[in-house]
Fold these 4 entries.
Entry 1:
Amino acid sequence: MAKRKNKGLTLLLSERSMHSGGHVRSRSCALPHFHHFDFPAGNKDDSSSPSSGNNSLTSSPSRSFNNSNGNFSGGSPNSDEFSPGGNFSVGSPYVRSPWVHHRRVRSPRDETNENLTNSRKTRNGLIGSLVREEGHVYSLAAAGELLYTGSDSKNIRVWKNSKEYAGFKSSSGLVKAIVVFGDKIFTGHQDGKIRIWKFLGDEKKAYKRHGSLPTTKDYFKTAINPKAYVEVRPKKNVPWLKHYDAVSCMSLDEERGLLYSGSWDKTLKVWRLSDSKCVESIMAHDDAINAVAVGFDGLVFTGSADGTVKAWRREMTGPSGPTTKHVLVDVLLKQDNAVTSLAVNARALTVYGGSSDGLVNFWELEKGVMVFGGVLRGHKLAVLCLAAAGNLVLSGSADKSICVWRRDDGGVHTCVSVLTGHSGPVKCLAVEEDHGGDGDYSYDDDQPLKKGDRRWRVYSGSLDKSVKIWRVPEHAPDY
């Protein structure tokens, strides 16, 4: 979970307005009324404490089912219940938030449960849920036919066609980030370790521990060198190549074979996957790093609890071989509220940053310079996760909802739908293109996609211990 800057802070919207000047190319998204949710405070995870119980891989039954208690919304509101100020007392902190001062715009309507009675024929919306009652879901990764889920039970579950396929368990540290690269899976943990797992093939349907970052050899080689230590706080020195606090985020540069890891220890580390070497460690922020995203044009973006989003440019140097060096080229955002999440639309040269005030800021590359594009206002509580696919960007929040935004030509963003159904904060998102016709979630042949349209399968992990599966079209659905 993203670390917040101040302990005990409730994740209600900040009253401060953002980016009062400048051209803002975005639209607000009014949300349906829902009950107030006090996001837990007082710890780095911003989550409730891990649930007790047996954490073994066979400790609790898994369930996958269709048409969970949720809905997919589309259309325009016809009553005040869709207004940001609807059904709230005058004394509510929400009434004093920036939302109530914005013009009410198009917001999706609720779809009745009758439209979700047969998931095999449901074209768009909630199509199923995966439940394994063993802990909050903190991380997701979709790769081909497989979905990987990580939780505070230390287990990594593997799902195929919405059924449990395999699983493996780490010795310690809840799973905060998952990255898949070929037949290897990298998991970032609360204990500061990055573990590597290898898939043994469909025949065995098993995974084997393949090592860790840094390797044991490299760690001990560095540990015996006094010059390899850095001071992380008064009277505490640690080897530079190892994270000493939670690994909160990871991002992969497949083209160059580099893995980036961000940590609550404020450092950004760069790993060369060909030999598992840490090639660079950067003290990138003044507080915990909550998000890292490989971008475009040689840029890498980081977001932190210190309220900043930074852009780093990758440079390849070294006469004896390629050596990676990153230099800070821009600070895109500097605010009081913690930055919790990042997502990149490489085709549109756009980066999005979610924060604890419920806003999503975005920037676009214009003539080699990152330019502020606008703010997406759609959540009542903190934005905890972001994902981009095609012309869509999705934001998951502590308010238990997911806003789906579509970017049109010219950078104008419209909230085309709001996905509701989780009973807890939405902590993580994963997206892959949905071609239909697979498993339990195929749809009718008489409902083909329009020419040029695309449909996405969205996975959302929540602190309600479930993963929900949604089918989302890139353009507005027909009803």
Entry 2:
Amino acid sequence: MEEKHRYILEKNRGLILNDLDVEKINNYLIQEFIFTPDQMQKIIGKATRKERAEFLLDSLPRQDQRTFYVFLETLRITYPHLYDVLLIDSRNVSSVPKQPVQCTENQFMMSESMKEPSAYEPEVDHASRRLASQNERVSERDLARVASHLSGDFNIIAGMLGLTSAELYQSQVQHQHSVKDQYFAILYTWRRKNGYAATKANLVRLLQEMNVDCSVYDFLFM
């Protein structure tokens, strides 16, 4: 497996472990010759669902170059929210960071502190700060602010966010007396399903595809 794909699996390991049941995808992985039946039996033989998922994630990087894409395909129908997260990362990640994902903020701070010292730096590097902000996971407060200004066809917006009809129905029923709460509910569901891929940049991209006025989201990069 390519180093980039190993990184993506490790980056989303917690999200995958929370949901993945190996027994729902094992036959396809055998069918596509990623694992032999004996290898898969060792994985399935683990005591708990989480242990099976951990063993699988530990084993996938040792397989051939096709493995990531085959694994992605197994998730497409069975776990569409995991599929979406990994697919977005596979498109957006071009190189593997030198530091772990969890240290992104620290890396930025370290890079700032390693600059050559100067007598006085009154100007803030707004461009760098804005770039770092784009990769932050959007907060619930951000979603609430977007929802308060959002308008348009509720069904279309929910569809563009990748919600299922069941999730759409649930959002409408639970918040039937408040349209703004319905908008927040579908945005929150999108955030939950996409995990660390629910960044400000990805939300803005989706809103732009919906032709949402920029005044609704321009605060995200201030």
Entry 3:
Amino acid sequence: MSKLDQILILDPPCDLKFKGPFTGVVTTNLKLKNPSDRRVCFKVKTTAPRRYCVRPNSGVIEAGATVIISVMLQPFDYDPNEKSKHKFMVQTIFAPPNVSDMDSLWKDAKPDDLMDSKLRCVFELPSENDKVWFHPSKLQVFERSRHFQVSEVRRRRRKEEEEEFLPCSHMNCVTTGNQILKNQIKTHRLMAHNEACYLIIKTVPNRSDKHAAAKHKYENMVR
């Protein structure tokens, strides 16, 4: 038996586009429309579950109804030279007359009854007119801290390169993103504080220089 075609109409159908900057949570919407006269159960999976939050990540769509899925990308260090390999999959199945336990429904589902659609993630930078310019001092501090995060980010991305679709999380993505931003701000403030202390220590003369200057001034007064 051949695999069933996807019954839902997805908008967008192929690509989920996320528009930067990616220093905060970026949200894009996926619209699922059920054109049939039957109820349809859906479930959203992704190859990078730690990087996204999806609401709702599963549910039932009534006949002729539409559901809007919010896909939230968590803050990360964007590298324009690195292509995104993240993908999403919308898995569906016709709902039985009386469905109560969704977990059992998906667990006992036959492969021939499942329908799915895959979408790839596309990251876009803002246009020149949309860019936000920062003060040079703040930008310099941010660039310095960026080097400490690049190696860790690349290590995590290598682990996510394998195309394995896992259930999406519906946790509070905003809280997680804000916590990441708070940690970054603490790092920036600490680096700026250390740099300021270094400049103060470098510009203040030591005690021996002070004594020598005072002695020279006294000798000039005596003469």
Entry 4:
Amino acid sequence: MQQPKVQIQPKVPGEWNTSLWGCFSNCGNCIATLCCPCITYGQIANIVDQGKTSVFSGGRNYAILMYFTCGCCLYSCFARSKLRYMFNLPPSPCGCADCLVHTCCEPCALCQEYRELQSRGFDMAVGWDLNTSQAGSTSVHAPVSQMMQGQMTNNQQNYNYQNAGYNNQNMNHQNAPPNQTMGQNDAYNNQNEYQINDPQEQVQY
């Protein structure tokens, strides 16, 4: 059975799969982020918020902050914090705070977060809902033939256990000591003789 590719919330501390300076490992995303970072942020926010923030609303909020307040880096750093919590990642690089990374290297930080989600098995083009639904469909449902085969196997095992108990009971009865069997027969014969010789049972003419 094929296992889902999406991996969420590991129990042990993880590491970033790419560095902050590895933007050119995905040139398409690098160019898109330089030209329109609001789209990249919207895709990241949709995943780290687990579908609560849509790609459109996340990108719209980022674009408003970028063009009117220049505070987009302070807004996007929260997505990096959620991403690190989701995969138990350390502050990077060199233990720098998330807000500092986004303030100094906003495009590089967005590219790194985008690549990290991709390396974890997320398809950034379809969003959170389709990613999780595809993962659930491959991990939950089993083929019908396997379910029927498992049920038949359980029924056969129960039948074998019942037969084994019945056979053991018969063997114990057959293997009883001869003295015990003769004693049971003598008691039965004595009871019959007592009933025949009972005066109350004799017929009076």
